[in-house]
C-alpha cells in the first residue's frame, strides 16, 4: 500500500510523505475557509477537501503492513474520492474564490479528468484487468497539483 516497506528510515518517509502533506492540505483548506466567501456548495467542497486532507494525514500515523485491513481500505478508498468530490463542489462557485474564468475552466478540466480517470480505474479493478499503478500515481499528482492551482488563482485574484 505504501510502496516503502523495505526502505531504511521508512517511518520518517511515512511522516513526511503522508502526515505532513495531509497537514498542508488541512491548513490550506482552513485558510481557504477563513479567507474566501463561503456559499453552500463552496463550503461543502472546502469541507470535503479538509476531510480528504485529514484522511491522507492519518495514513502517516497508523502502523502499516502489507495486509489490507478495514482501516487501510477505508483510508485508501475514500481519501481521493472525497477530495475529487470537494473539487467538484468548488467548481460550481469558484468565482467566489477567484474572479478569473480561466482558473474556473482549468479547475473544471482537472476535476472532470480525475472523475473520468477514477471511473476507468474502478472498471479496470472490477474486471480484473492488469492494473497499472502509474494511472493511480498520475491521479494523485493531478489532485495535489489542483491545490497549487487554487492557490495560484488566489494570488492572481489580488
TrEMBL record:
Transmembrane segments: 12-31, 43-62, 74-94, 106-126, 138-156
Keywords for the protein's UniProt record, in alphabetical order: Membrane, Transmembrane, Transmembrane helix
Keyword Transmembrane helix: yes
Top-level taxon of origin: Bacteria
Protein name: Uncharacterized protein
Organism in which the protein naturally occurs: Flavobacterium sediminilitoris
Upper lineage: Bacteria, Pseudomonadati, Bacteroidota, Flavobacteriia, Flavobacteriales
